[in-house]
Amino acid sequence: MSSSSTADGRILCEVDPDRRIATVTIDNPAQRNSYDAAMRDGLARYLDDIAADDDIVVVLLRGADGVFSTGADMNNAYGWYGEGGSDRPEKSRPSQRRRLAVDRKSFGFYHNFLGFPKVTVGEISGYALGGGFEMALMTDISVVARDTRIGMPAARFLGPALGSLHMFFHRLGPVLARRLLLTGDIVEVSTLEQLGVFTEVCDPAVVGARARYWAEKAAKMPADGVVIAKEAFRLVEQSQAYQGEEVASYLFHAFGTNLQFSAGEFNFVKTRAEHGTKQAFRLRDEHFDVPEPGPR
Description:
By secondary structure, the protein is of the alpha/beta class. The protein has helices at residues 37-51, 96-114, 131-138, 155-158, 165-172, 174-183, 207-219, 223-240, 245-256, 268-275, 277-288; strands at 2-5, 11-16, 21-26, 58-63, 119-124, 127-129, 141-145, 149-151, 186-188, 200-202.
């Protein structure tokens, strides 16, 4: 068994050739395993290595310390677009061409993970939000703790045209996809258990063992058969559900990050600049809180 990590240690990879399983761990617990561009690129490099390794059949994706991932690090909201041209004012909004170029690269990662040629097993616990929620849904086999909280809260300040819309509608169905994207609600998996969105929903104490069980089960399959099947699955999904997914994902995200906010609407980036990230999240939650009426 061999282990390695990215330069700053926030993405870990352990390869077990005897069991034919690679375990990749997002290890940024101080930020609830959110990730920045460098972490995402490190994760992509490990996945590329695993895809090219004939001895590995399964990749098990998990997060450290009982949290899967809260998605992109919002301490760097919009910072992922970089500086752009040297002639641009210091605090100007990124150009549309800059957004499109950066988002094309960013969403290339999710597109590649969606069509990954090995079996992907997700060990999902704690939180799976934003990009973390997308990765959880993209895994072939998803084992989820019953108290895990999932959703796309960034829809509340980037708009509902966010992420892989094809995947959301295909995996969640149009009713649930619209509910989560049009409200930005974060929901507990236990409330969705009966919908069959995930492979297995279990108690938090056993999610690691159950994910390992499914990984070892899938790793018994013939390696060539798995790769052939994954390509066949991708062909079927691309023809039935994902046509245009690669372009639509980054195109609408780039548009969405260029929203104009009206009076009374919550502008996360402006609020964060004035009050800091932690306070911005608190004010966001206050703004979007609508008390439930009486019993239904």
